[in-house]
Amino acid sequence: MTSYRVLDLAGESGAYCSRLLAGLGMDVLKIEPPGGDPCRLKGPFAGGKAGPEKSLPFWYLNAGKRGLTLDLAESNSKDAFLKLVSAADVLVENSTPGYLPRLGLGYPELSAANPGLIWVSITGFGQSGPYSGFAWSDIVAQALGGWMNICGDRDTPPLMLPADQAALVASVFGAVGALLALRARRYSGRGQHIDVSIQECVAATLDHVLPRYFGLNEIASRQGSLHWNKAFRIFNCRDGYLLASLTQRWDTLVEWMETEGMAEDLSSPEWKDEGRRRQGIQHIIEVMEKWTRTRAAAELEQQAQLMGFPWARVTDLAGVAESRQLRARGFFVEVNHPEDGRSYECPGAPCVFSRTPWKAGGRPPSLNTGLRLSGESRNPASTWDIPGKGGNGPGTPPQARPFAPLEGIRVLDFTRVLAGPYATRLLADFGAEVIKVRMPGDEESDPFGKAYYLYWNRNKLSVALDLSKPEGLVLAMRLASKSDVIVENFSPRVMANWGMDYENLRLLRPEVIMVSLSTQGHTGMLRDYVGYGPTVHALSGLSCLTAFSDRGPLGPGHAHADNVAGLYGAMAVLAALDHREKTGEGQYVDISENEAMCSTLGIPLLAQLVNGLAPAPAGNASESSVPHGCYRCKGDDQWCAIAVDTDEQWKAFIHALGNPPGASDPTLATAEGRLRNRALLDRMVEDWAARRTAEQVMEKLQSAGVPAGKVLDAAGLASDPQLNSRGFFIDPGTADTAGFRVDASPLRLSGTPARDLRNAPGGKRDAGYVFEHVLGLSRSEIEILTRSGAIGMHEDSIRT
């Protein structure tokens, strides 16, 4: 993707978007204000010494970019910026809505300078709605987006995910949006504006929360390290912690515990009943933890993996940095940093491309002043030569405009549960014809299973094929030969055992793109590692970091790693399609969910690699902001997240609180002084918030310009004024899903929006189209294959 040029105006909350575009090969020019990006002053710092060239967050978020300093409020700089815009493909920014238009640099002005410009705006609450002007911080977006309500324990405050996960997830969405818009521009010649709300990105990655609410009227709540469906839990071991499954392959688990004399009454016949096990889950936990406390975590993990259990040690970042699997796959890369006089290891690619390697080795730009490009003396107006360059830019003659960016692309979807379905749902939303392959009779029987399936598979088709039968496998191969993209998330051996690995599929269609998502990737000594989303949380360091300082690891309350891997999967498909458009080449993309999650934890992992010391678990506390936390408010389990990030916000904050005693102490006027008095300030906020409702706390502080947000549960999300004003929830509008709503895409593309919602696939409805129109089977052939059990079919779905 080296032909694309990106202008990066984004600060900390949007810079990862353009960093991903740089990794894909785009030429990214970061434009900083005079004095530099404020992120340069944020720790941790290399060697523990503060300085604009030593900020590890800045390093990680801006690797591989060039740099330029411009004051956009100054007329000469504005003219230079407009010249850069005229030659750019993508602009990424995260300024407060309305700021750039006030400078005369709104979308109308920039699109007039370059009609093909794609503008990606990443903001806390989007460009419209009653909260669009709200002050935001990552903890506030996590509260108002729903993550925090399901993270933590019953007796703790709601817990945020570490390392600015909300902003980083929104940045991946932004990169996907930019790639969709670039693809649309190939046909229309026109750019567009992409409005990304971080709150919506959080709410769109909640796994079970909204399906349970809209499907079963259940409101999910915090339950510590116990998985939401009671399938996993984190256990104490002799020397650490272990993520273990609780009820999977029950007989084998009990036999294992019996051999060590630790099964107690779990070997009784009554526990063979799955319903009994769910009712008695706390007893099972107590017995298992007596056992795990006698064993080393690594020993249990190793033995469990040999037996096919998806167990994993809860690994800290030091363990992640030493991972044999990550090092065998070359995940860590060397980055030279001349100002510091040495090279550093840095987390690498979230995806491994066979034809277009990730550009992971670039250093971040150095700080400079004036109209100069980092390391060069050219005037910035001449750094990019020809506006509308090449064959893909604004000057391209428009072709017939597609209905959606992915119109005409067929995706064969072999995925299950969440990571894969999330990737293919995003592709389906923007026009791809996604055909989901299911086993005959594989209908979701329980109400929640159906709701979950409906939620993550909308806008797709489905077909039932029994791949254990030769006839079913032949049909799958024929479908693959007629598909542009194949996505699967089986363990590495499965597709190869069917003869449907990439090397075989490319013989059927040389230009095919195949994306595989697995726990540890398709190479390395741990390629066959068994795992699900919670396993990845433990492996990557996320579970370890998602904890209060005085408690053991809790981990997220939703399948965060699955959502993250699914987003990277969609990004990889779009990048590979772009490469194929230009070269005719397909390729294979290997995504390790562990590497994808480690990439999204890149800042604390970089601190471990550079300084040998990563930030410790700190609950809702911040290393740079105080007050910063989640505070109990009036009412049952009512909370509000508050973040005072700047000295100006501190002044506004104490004024909003009525200048409580001691708040005017001059030592509190600086972040350093407030950090030293964290406990005192937390008590002050707790006392003030406890006498008010969460809505009152949020409204009072937001009116003063202080980031604050109520912790929303599923019902709160469904009634949230901001989400509803932006049409975030959609009704499928079909008789069989009355009252069931799903989320709209958080990618708001102004020119090619996500298509109208089509209900989730049903084999009876879709089979006729797939078997007759795509595969060209006759009615008699379909009947024979149905009787043999190779396909699932229904008379009503066969056209006469």
Short description:
The chain is built from 33 helices and 25 strands. It is an alpha/beta fold and 800 residues long.
Describe the structure.
The model is unreliable at 369-383, 385-401 and 795-800 (pLDDT under 50). This protein is 38% helix and 14% strand. The protein is globular, with a radius of gyration of 26 Å. Helix 9 (209-216) packs across helix 17, helix 21 packs across helix 24 and helix 23 (560-583) crosses helix 24 (593-600). Strands 12-18-17-16-13-14-15-25 form an 8-stranded mixed β-sheet, sandwiched between helices. Strands 3-2-1-4-5-6-24 form a 7-stranded mixed β-sheet. The two termini are 47 Å apart. With 800 residues, it is α/β, with parallel strands linked by helices.
Structural class per helix/strand content? alpha/beta
Number of helices: 33
Biggest sheet strand order reads 12-18-17-16-13-14-15-25
Backbone shape? globular
Question: Distance between termini?
Answer: 47 Å
The portion of residues forming beta strands comes to 5-15%
Count the beta strands. Answer: 25
Q: Radius of gyration from the CA trace?
A: 26 Å
Instruction: Round the mean pLDDT to the nearest integer and report it.
Output: 90
